Amino acid sequence: xxxxxxxxxxxxxxxxxxxxxxxxxxxxxxxxxxxxxxxxxxxxxxxxxxxxxxxxxxxxxxxxxxxxxxxxxxxxxxxxxxxxxxxxxxxxxxxxxxxxxxxxxxxxxxxxxxxxxxxxxxxxxxxxxxxxxxxxxxxxxxxxxxxxxxxxxxxxxxxxxxxxxxxxxxxxxxxxxxxxxxxxxxxxxxxxxxxxxxxxxxxxxxxxxxxxxxxxxxxxxxxxxxxxxxxxxxxxxxxxxxxxxxxxxxxxxxxxxxxxxxxxxxxxxxxxxxxxxxxxxxxxxxxxxxxxxxxxxxxxxxxxxxxxxxxxxxxxxxxxxxxxxxxxxxxxxxxxxxxxxxxxxxxxxxxxxxxxxxxxxxxxxxxxxxxxxxxxxxxxx
Amino acid sequence: xxxxxxxxxxxxxxxxxxxxxxxxxxxxxxxxxxxxxxxxxxxxxxxxxxxxxxxxxxxxxxxxxxxxxxxxxxxxxxxxxxxxxxxxxxxxxxxxxxxxxxxxxxxxxxxxxxxxxxxxxxxxxxxxxxxxxxxxxxxxxxxxxxxxxxxxxxxxxxxxxxxxxxxxxxxxxxxxxxxxxxxxxxxxxxxxxxxxxxxxxxxxxxxxxxxxxxxxxxxxxxxxxxxxxxxxxxxxxxxxxxxxxxxxxxxxxxxxxxxxxxxxxxxxxxxxxxxxxxxxxxxxxxxxxxxxxxxxxxxxxxxxxxxxxxxxxxxxxxxxxxxxxxxxxxxxxxxxxxxxxxxxxxxxxxxxxxxxxxxxxxxxxxxxxxxxxxxxxxxxx
Lengths: 381, 381
Known about the structure:
Chain A is globular, with a radius of gyration of 21 Å. In chain A, strands 1-2-6-5-4-3-7-8-9 form a nine-stranded mixed sheet. A three-stranded antiparallel sheet of chain A has the order 10-12-11. Chain A has 381 residues and is of the alpha/beta class. Helices cover 44% and strands 12% of the residues of chain A.
């Protein structure tokens, strides 16, 4: 029984490595349709392992009312991805294994498998993210590069998203001390393509990280998902330049939700690229004019041990106890609609056991009928 | 007996106007050597009026050990200044009179007489200061002008120092709604001279204010003294652009000491003109990207009545009781040196009555041997 919320403790030297066979099953499961990081965790908790979960998927989807059940990744596909990845020098690190980044385990929806190219060890160094506009100003680029350089000199690894503008400047400034590029697509689909050389260069002392299939072409909507990894890997996020409603502000919001520090670089109010960062400062982000401002906040945090939050899941029940009765299933589905509802409310209003509600939600999700939102909210699609 | 610390209450409708004769004596006293606003207050408190203080000055100076006693302004000089001022339409408002700006009375060292040209009424409207670099950027000038305009539209009078750059932009932006120029020199010595037209133009709906003699040529060291009036007149100070160790930061510091709000406009960390403002933000100034940020802080303050702090001075003693004995005077002088000492410590260490210590300090000051610092600190010169 894997309980990811407890992996933090285990990973501190006690982590267990998956067997090759288990890793293959994990990859099949996470590459199957309708299965995101949260569903993956629920399935493993429910069935005790990926192999059992894979076997159960068709009947779960049927009970969830799938008209056309989602595709389950085949053993051959997963084996091919593992083989092709190995050829690139990519290592798959599984949630709960000793190499899995400690802070990333603490987020709500950590990727079960992280495909890492380059130096794995950098992921467990103190990391700080530096992000910002793609169409950055010359001053912004210069500042980001010098901030990344100074934080690198102070032994921090610098995390960013390999984008044009601020991201690339952050990687360039810290390329000699170690930098981590978190990809929106797969390792074979570097975006933007002109940063392929930058990526190759940063692998010498840093790493590239992806949770997506090797050949996944990143779409616009993959980047917010990717951004949770940028903040999730890091002690904090520095936003250098950001317009209103920009992706960097999503990263800052996620950082806040994940309990990470948020830093922002001030800018002239007449510069639209400073609207987002000045807004963050008004909301209480720490003002940064140099590396010392970041270090002053992070140094005290570094001293504290990383303690995983107490596990919230109850002990698993025997399958018979969590098998929903037909009327229970109908009652729970009846409570759902297109407006997100809290899972706690579903439990209360349905009168069903929490484990039963979770099972029904799992079935619906596998059937492609459920959408999960942040904060334990769910809705029908 | 005038007790300026209580004038706030009196000025709220109960203020008494000085007679012409009294105003002449006040002007003579404040124009005499070695007499600043604090000494003026002490003298009035000690002698019950300016006429008696003027009479006592020579003997005070002698007892304070003046080698060459300071010059006492003559009756003719004061009358000439009053007459010349009247010709310019200048009105002298005395501390404690109904027209004296309420908030300015609350500062530690309010000028006994304020020479006002233009619309006197603006001084008792809600005022906000906007200050900043003389060598401002084009963006800074544009921002200051538009901020002043918007605050003017919101019924605030805008106070500034008539300097080049940000100050002039602040006046220009609020010229139609009302703006106050606080001068470093006298009304006949406008600095910089090229802003004489701007000054004339702003008098239609605003005012120019000075505590200096009509023909006083402002020197560099007069501006920090002037800056206390900019902040003292205002609910708060917005610093738009400021390099490190600039005059605008002095105004911000004085505003803080006077219990006024401090606002700062953020800027790019690579711009030296933003070093001061970003520094203020790190110290807790409110970040301003538009008038709304200022109004949000000031609006709740406007609702509160202005309450003068409780009077700290004891009731005056009969002259015999505050006449220092020869050994007391020697003991107090012996405790003084070039390093600033707290007046409270002098009282404690000398064993003399507080009123006696104040008398000795007054004598030393009139004799030109004492320097007063902020926070009730004094040193020998």
